Amino acid sequence: MDYVAEVDFAVVGVGTMGSMALWQLSELAPEGTSILGIEQFGRLHTRGSYSGESRLFRVALKEGGDFIEFAQRARELWLDLNEKSGRDVFLPIGALSIGPSDYQTMMSTQKVIEEFDLDHSYLDSEELRERFPQFEVAKQDIGIYDPQGGGIRPEVAVASATELALDNGAKLWTHTKVLGIDRLADGGAVLRTSRGSVLAHNLILTLGSWAGELIPEAKDVVRVKPIPLTWFMPRTPELFSPENLPIFLYDKPQPDGSSFHIYGAPSIDGYTVKFSTNAFFVDTVDHPDQVPSTVREPALNAFSQRVAEVIPDFFPDVARLSMHHDGFTEDGHAIIDVLPEQSLTMAVGMSGTGMKFAPYFGRLAATLALSKDPSRRPEFFSVATHRP
């Protein structure tokens, strides 16, 4: 067979995970290793999971366990990306969680802080009002401030990681669709692409919401979930600048006993503030092309009214909305695994949490691909734990 290219490593899908894997692989691989990234869209685009101006980052994660180490390692790499790119990819502005002191999310976060001896500040409702007057807090609310948290600029992250990989000698094909993957008996694969066939001796698949199309192990395991993001316009924009507001999460009790969970980031553009919820869509779809183009007006109006109760300074209407998606697994854990006999590594199913860990997960994928040693990843990331 004639090949248009033959490479030591191919990274398929150069979005969040792919750009980070490409960057880390270009730093960890021996000199002279040929590395090719293949992206079906442009170098930057709005079709994947990462667009939307900002993402949240915390170290004090209620999940605890390994995820604290993942976050700490990721933060080191985010700062490394800042330094090497010369851009403000990671904004070290802290993270604020607000909610009733007896809420499980707040108690779990406090437990993790104590268990791992994490830097923090606790604020009662009066201290919250004084330090963060943007929020209309209730008497029973407390605040947990995580100084190691911050904001991530996702488009800048993907562009910067990809640029560093190219500076290190990697190649990138954009607007190139992988039509099929023929795995070879002795390892590696032939990638049938819109440019022709590529022989890759090692493969890293970072396909996001498209995982089920090209990875049989991920089919019916990684499902696509719509994620809408919304922005509101404040009357006093300076209150919501990164200098005055960290990234935030707020659990607000409702009269019916439910919780209104909202999250957001300070104003990046100077006039709107991201303020969103995961409650709009609970069902998954089969393919990214089936993601709705917007949120139904009644649901959007109801959300806007609730938001105005939390932050009175907002005009009570959505100023901007964009639709996104991600690949979700049933247990919420990603699949980051290597099939050593096939020289194939995958990092998919990030379940809406991939961006915060992205540089570390990218490094883990690169390490697995180079070492072909599955023991270097946690067992809960294995393909086997996600298959029936």
From TrEMBL:
PANTHER family the record matches: FAD DEPENDENT OXIDOREDUCTASE DOMAIN-CONTAINING PROTEIN, PEROXISOMAL SARCOSINE OXIDASE
Single annotated GO MF: sarcosine oxidase activity
RNA-binding as UniProt keyword: no
Residues in FAD dependent oxidoreductase domain copies: 8-367
Keyword line: FAD, Flavoprotein, Oxidoreductase
InterPro entries tied to this protein: FAD-dep_OxRdtase, FAD/NAD-bd_sf, MTOX
Cofactor: FAD
Annotated organism of origin: Corynebacterium flavescens
Protein name: FAD dependent oxidoreductase domain-containing protein
One Pfam family this sequence matches: DAO
UniProt KW Translocase keyword: no
Highest taxon of source: Bacteria
Signal peptide span: none
